[in-house]
């Protein structure tokens, strides 16, 4: 798991424990905004990869429905599929896959 996300999780759990124990907790705006911005960025990266995968699957289904099997380039489909899978894997690691 991403180290920043691990830190956010630990901080979140510690904060929940402190609140449950009735401690008064104060945060700066920066301390709150920074992790939220990071998490939003990670969501955006993963959404892009998911949309790429959805588009690939939709195009594959369309091709299977409209193009005779003898005209499908299986090597190209496999290469495209591999690129999509690699993009998804990178996104799940938190890497931006935008070109």
| Total beta strand runs | 0
pLDDT under 50 segments (min length 5)? none
Structural class, from helix and strand content? Answer: mainly alpha
Shape estimate: rod-shaped
Radius of gyration, in Å, reads 21 Å
Whole-number mean pLDDT: 86
| Terminal CA distance | 24 Å
- Elements, N to C (H/E): HHH
Strand content: under 5%
Helix count? Answer: 3
Query: In which range does the helix fraction lie?
Result: over 70%
Largest sheet: none
Textual characterization of the structure:
The chain is an all-alpha fold. Helix content is 76%, strand content 0%. The protein contains three helices and no strands. It has helices at residues 3-20, 29-66, 74-92. Helix 2 packs antiparallel against helix 3. The model has no long low-confidence stretch (mean pLDDT 86).
Topology:
Blueprint lengths: L2 H18 L8 H38 L7 H19 L7
Helix pairs in contact: 2-3
Provide a brief overview of the structure.
By secondary structure, the chain is mainly alpha-helical. It has helices spanning 3-20, 29-66, 74-92.
Task: Supply the key terms.
single chain, 99 residues, mainly alpha, 3 helices, rod-shaped
């Amino acid at each position: 798991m991403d180290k920043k996300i691990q830190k956010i999780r630990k901080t979140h759990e510690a904060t929940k424990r402190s609140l449950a124990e009735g401690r008064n907790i104060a945060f700066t705006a920066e301390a709150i905004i920074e992790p939220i911005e990071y998490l939003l960025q990670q969501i955006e990266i993963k959404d892009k990869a998911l949309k790429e995968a959805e588009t690939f699957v939709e195009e594959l289904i369309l091709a299977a429905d409209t193009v005779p099997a003898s005209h499908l380039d299986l090597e190209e489909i496999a290469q495209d599929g591999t690129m999509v899978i690699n993009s998804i894997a990178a996104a799940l690691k938190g890497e931006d896959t935008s070109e």
